[in-house]
Amino acid sequence: MSSEQKETLRATAANANLTSYEEARRTFDWSEVEKHFTWHSTGKVNMAYEAIDRHAEGGLADKVALHYSDATRLEAITYAQMKANSNKFGNVLRQLGIGKGDRVFIFMPRSPELYYALLGTIKIGAIVGPLFEAFMEQAVRDRLEDSQAVAIVTTPSQLPRVPVADLPHLKHVILVGDDLLQLAAGQVDFKAEMAQASDELAIEWVDREDGLILHYTSGSTGKPKGVFHVHNAMIQHYYTGRIVLDLKEDDVYWCTADPGWVTGTSYGVFAPWLNGATNVVRGGRFKPQDWYDTIERFKVTVWYSAPTSFRMLMSAGDDTVKAFDLSSLRHVLSVGEPLNPEVVRWGFKAYGQRIHDTWWMTETGGQLICNYPSMDIRPGSMGKPIPGTDAAIIDDNGNVLPPNRMGNLAIKTPWPSMMRAIWNNPAKYEEYFRFPGWYVSGDSAYMDEDGYFWFQGRVDDVINTAGERVGPFEVESKLIEHPAVAEAGVIGKPDPIRGEIIKAYIALREGFEPSDELKADIAKFVKEGFAAHAAPREIEFKDKLPKTRSGKIMRRVLKAWELGLPTGDLSTIED
Ligand code: WT7
Question: Which SUPFAM superfamilies does its entry note (predicted)?
Fold first, then answer.
């Protein structure tokens, strides 16, 4: 299709922070951004200082840093209070003997305390590991074991899912709850300790390349990978907050992601606060009315969410939109999976806003391919690489392909927020950089003749369900623990709302008969034993699963069955 024919939503924002994308691509240099930070003159770096304290000390003390709300709480926390509370938590950790480089995990639902803990951990130079609240015991164990975490901040209701006895490195369990009566050895009462802690803290100044955060993410094989990020990432978080989120100081910004996922930290904590914005956090489950109410109540101006949420809002209907005053919105963005053109069209109609798609990954730490307010949008395209970086489509030998050819989406190395390691796994890390000068994303895509990038799919088998990345291997491993399951192969099945749902093909052990009750029981087993978001929504029983001679389940064959497509090359199949 020629570019004139392509559906286009024209650029509207005349006063965007980024006025000309083309010009910035020619002239922009990352070193310009560094001048913004205190460390440019002092040489002393700490992400939490730049995000919170600098504003608390520099005229924004009484500005609301965080509007928190859920079904039972409504709190506004100023920059000064955020500074004081995170200082307190830093002191609590120091009193426990925790310091620079130690891994401290956070495993709790969203609440103001979560943010105090996250920032306080960073302030003392420790490495924070956020865990999604819904993880079950085995998922928690794998992550704490791999990272050798020394402390975890959690709630009494989640405590049973923290296998303390199996984790010799885990010395402290910090419990966030009311009226904690009896504490076992190693348990710490968050509220009581915070109440007596000083709100003055000597920040741990670290090196730009020192550890900041560890996000575990799924691949197609093996255990989850600990993606390791450093303080230097702030350069990209600040800059993309300016040019992609288009944040200005009077913005009220809402990122709907949980900090257990990278969007909820890079763009739910760092980018908005580095830019001095007011940040909104809504706890609890998704409900269209609650979400629109959040926009109306806090007069949200910039809103960052995900395709799966937009699709659910779309199916909730236009009348639900009309029941609320959403006129404060001025900039809407999306991330996590392909944003369907249909959703972009609907958003334009229902909200009067262009939804700006953005592409990046846990590993990239920050946004890389985006749509900008001052750039025309082509619905269905992820946009163009941010100034200061380059993206290309390369073939399986590392050669750059011309426009309109599908291949591996790759990013020219380095960029400021790039991961610095896979924890404990240098070989995995190297795999991303197998072609000199390139980071290979694992996504396939093409670039059109005008430089817009179009997502085509994952190259490997990772499932993207409701915006969350699930590794089939972890789910299969859990499934085969079920007494009835002999073998399991897990794929993502296309789904109009969730993007993909998890579908499991299962071969039963002898003596077990297929039934709906058994399906329900197997799904429940994964839900309770691993994580609800990773439980199969669909199960199909098979006598046998397709496997390679080396015993690897051929998920692409399962996928072809599912989609009614040819199964392709079967030369490596078992029989
Ligand atoms: C994978 C990364 C970092 C954001 C949250 C997801 C898919 C992400 C898009 C997009 C199509 C997208 C890719 C990517 N993805 N954004 N705009 N269009 N696909 O982070 O869990 O590390 O997953 O999500 O497949 O590789 P993640």
Answer: Acetyl-CoA synthetase-like
Q: Give CA separation, 350 vs 305, 319, 320, 394, in Å.
A: 16, 9, 10, 38
Mean pLDDT over all residues of the chain?
93
Of all protein residues, the one whose alpha carbon is nearest to atom 18 of ligand 1 is 338
User: What b/e string do you get for 342-365 counting C-beta neighbours within 10 Å, with b at 16 or more?
Assistant: ebbebbbebbebbbbbbbbbbbbb
Residue from 214, 308, 337, 418 whose mutation best tests the ligand 1 pocket (most atoms within 8 A of CB): 337
Domain that holds residue 250: 32-447
Determine, yes or no, domain membership for 428.
yes
Do 302 and 416 reside in the same domain of the chain?
yes
Give residues with Cβ within 8 angstroms of 251, minimum separation 6.
275, 277, 278, 301, 302
CATH of the domain at 523: 3.30.300.30
pLDDT number for residue 552: 65
Domain CATH for 264: 3.40.50.12780
Within a domain: residue 539?
A: yes
Same domain for 437 and 538, yes or no, is no
- Classify residue 324: in a domain, yes or no: yes
Task: Identify the residue with better confidence: 574 or 93.
Answer: 93
Spacing, Cα 313 to ligand 1 middle (Å): 20
What is the model's pLDDT at position 2? Answer: 47
Distance from the alpha carbon of residue 517 to the mean position of ligand 1, in angstroms = 35
What's the structural domain count of the chain?
2
Note whether ipTM > 0.90 here.
Answer: yes
Ligand 1 center to 336 CA (angstroms)? 4
Whole-model pTM: value is 0.89
pLDDT tens sequence across 283-320: 998 899 999 999 999 999 999 999 889 988 998 999 99
**Minimum CA distance residue for ligand 1 atom 2:** 361
Structure confidence at residue 284 (pLDDT):
92
Q: Please choose from 357, 384, 469 the residue to mutate so as to test ligand 1's pocket, defined by most ligand atoms within 8 A of CB.
A: 469
Residues having CB closer than 6 A to ligand 1 are 217, 262-263, 335-339, 357-362, 382, 441-443, 455, 458, 464, 469
